[in-house]
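Supplementary Text 2. Reproducibility record for the structural model of the 344-residue chain.

All settings were left at their defaults, and a single model was retained for analysis rather than an ensemble. We include the record here because the model underlies the residue-level annotations in Supplementary Table 4.
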Amino acid sequence: MKSLALLLCFAQLWGCQSAPPGMGVGFREVACDDSETEQVALMAVNYLNEHLLHGYKHTLNQIDKVKVWSRRPMGEVYELEVDTLETICHILDPTPLANCSVRQLAEHAVEGDCDFHILKQDGQFTVMHTQCHSTPDSAEDVRKVCPRCPILIQFNDTKVVNTVKTALATFNAQINGTYFKLAEISRAQNVPLPGATFVEFVVAATDCTAQEVTDPDKCNLLAEKQYGFCKASAIQGLGGEDVSVACTLFQKQPQPDSANAAGPAPTAPPAAPPASLVVGPVVVAVPPAHQTHHDLRHAFSPVASVESASGEAVSLPKVVQPSTVGAADPVIQLCPGRVRHFKI
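Retained model, structure tokens:
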């Protein structure tokens, strides 16, 4: 009898350790492709994108697990594990997520893995906790799909730094107006033969004139922030290197009151001392880093990734789901859910 009692105590202790903070030991399992589960997951991914400081928007690819815990004295908490895929839209791009294309395998796709705790109380949904990381597909897998496609390389690679520097100078010479500073290197790829480097980066408008600037470090960002997203290439040819660049400028953004709340930092080229770079609406001094993409582990706003008592209230997206006739049939596998795009 003592052994049985001890076993029950251990079972209860294990259940408590597995539950989110503040939850009981009991939970109910629901289908990953259940209509409300999918709506909560889509809301969670939108919340992720709204709080990212660097890189590209992510879209929902698959719901891996879901548990719904009862919360005392009232409400319940969705514990979700979801997979995401990087899109081609930068986080500063105003294009709605639904209109952003997923980055394909041949383009060296990036997959995200996120855990969410979301409170449902009185019909309101509140994000309590978020933890994410992301990983690019392997170069070997990319070459299986497209042997000659460009592969991700580190942001501080000499070829990347030189391409960005030349492309930014070319852009500033073309616009004949406001001088733009480098804000973030977002993506860098390379093809060995023929030698070609492809980069994507973010620029920010300053109070200097492009034709008259002598010391870029003395140029300040405008009160109404304006960013641009650029794509550039440097291709080696018989006559030397050919660099081309094309930038899209976004609408100006008023400076928020919380401009001093700095988050994780973007990447700066190692060829020069750390400079003041733009992080969304924030400017911070950052050191160079060895990375090939903006990992969700480092790019997520601190205020959105820490367990909190109140969290941040959000609304469910209005999504029309397909018919789920028979979804309650116990013979149907509850999780993981369907793959919306592809698996890496």
